[in-house]
User: Fold this.
Amino acid sequence: MLLLSMTIILGTLTIHDAVPLEDQNDVGNPVKRNYRFVEANNQFALSILNALDKKNNIIMSPWSFSMTLGMAYLGASGSSAREMEEVLGYRSAGIERDLVHDGFRIEESALKRVHGKNELSSANVVLVQEGYTLSKSYKDDLKRYYNSSTTEINFTRPQSVLQWVNAWGYWTSNSKIKQILTETPPKTTKLMLLNGVYFKGNWLNPFNPEHTRLEDFTNENGRKVTVPIMHMINNVSYVAYHKLGVYAVNFPYDGEDINMMVLLPTENNNLNAVEDKLTTAVLEDILAQMEMQTINVGFPKFELKDDRKMKETLKSLGMQSAFSENEADFSRIAETRDLYLEEVIHKAVIQVNENGTEANANTVIPLMNKRKLPEFFANRPFLFLIRNMRSGAILFIGHVVQLE
Ligand SMILES: *[C@@H]1O[C@H](CO)[C@@H](O)[C@H](O)[C@H]1NC(C)=O
Ligand SMILES: *[C@@H]1O[C@H](CO)[C@@H](O)[C@H](O)[C@H]1NC(C)=O
Ligand SMILES: *[C@@H]1O[C@H](CO)[C@@H](O)[C@H](O)[C@H]1NC(C)=O
Ligand SMILES: *[C@@H]1O[C@H](CO)[C@@H](O)[C@H](O)[C@H]1NC(C)=O
Assistant:
């Protein structure tokens, strides 16, 4: 069973001018347009991963992250909008403004249609200071593209805002995230954009708990720790992909629309080198090269929690003006033009274990085979991505460099 949840907040929007985007003139069909949109988001996910401090474990939801930034981008103009297009990857992919927002809408409805006994939900809401007037078009577009309602709240009573937000986070994360906010937001906050994504998936082929053993895992720093490692012999999509120096497998969830792709560096390679070279094109190529093979799998049980403030990372990637009191331009949100982004908070939790929900969860039949099976033994740092196979969207990404 895999349990994931995450919530993201964009803080204080507190403001100025619109420059029209050039006409990208995209007349492609919706599926194709959304493919480019998904690819842009995925490329952004990999940039974020590489911009983080990689000495620690990472878990985040690019989907949640991009969507919340999408709601901010919806209200951005001028240089703030241009920088966001650049950093979020929409500009280089040649996707014009409206198609970005429509991309989120299309992908959200696609996620509602994934097969199997999984839970996958996402929710958006925008909190607004009582008496603060949002432009009608912003409100309408929030609803139209992001299915986000707007709720009035009094930010000059920070304690009650804290309670409201944490209760919402608790609800959308299925009780996994107890405190999205640990500090009260500034009283000058005018707007807060919130998104929560929740996923609970059961492995199509669960691991048999009787085969879980305590074994060594070598952390990034070379220290060996003893952790529970799950085992199975099964047919899985697998490739030894030498161009990047990784072994890759896909673990499908029930319904097979969503899966976890795990990239394990080869013995003489390391995770950092893999992550540096990873692009969406490489990911696609790995997928294309994968073949069903009988594999002897060893994969640790693990739990990761992340709590990040992403402002500095986004600034380092080029999103400068949106965070600047003087330069930010969110004039599409409110005519008063006094808004800027205060912070981008991202929390995520992941639990990986053997489970399937169903009674037949443990019906994997180990296969005896005379030839030596290829082994996929994740007893050292690895990268994982949880993807919607139909669209390719990366819902969650993370890496494990140290276990305890
Ligand atoms: C929109 O959001 C509401 C409240 O979160 C939810 O009940 C509803 O199913 C959503 N609608 C769509 C089309 O996603
Ligand atoms: C918000 O709360 C403050 C402090 O309690 C109060 O003075 C103010 O009237 C409230 N604003 C609104 C619009 O209710
Ligand atoms: C794996 O695939 C082989 C060849 O297609 C098949 O004979 C075998 O039964 C499969 N094993 C399992 C555990 O599904
Ligand atoms: C897996 O599911 C079974 C049955 O629901 C439950 O008893 C068991 O505790 C679960 N195992 C884990 C590791 O969550």
User: Anything to note?
Assistant: The longest strand covers residues 224-241. Residues 1-6, 11-31, 356-371 have pLDDT under 50 and may be disordered.
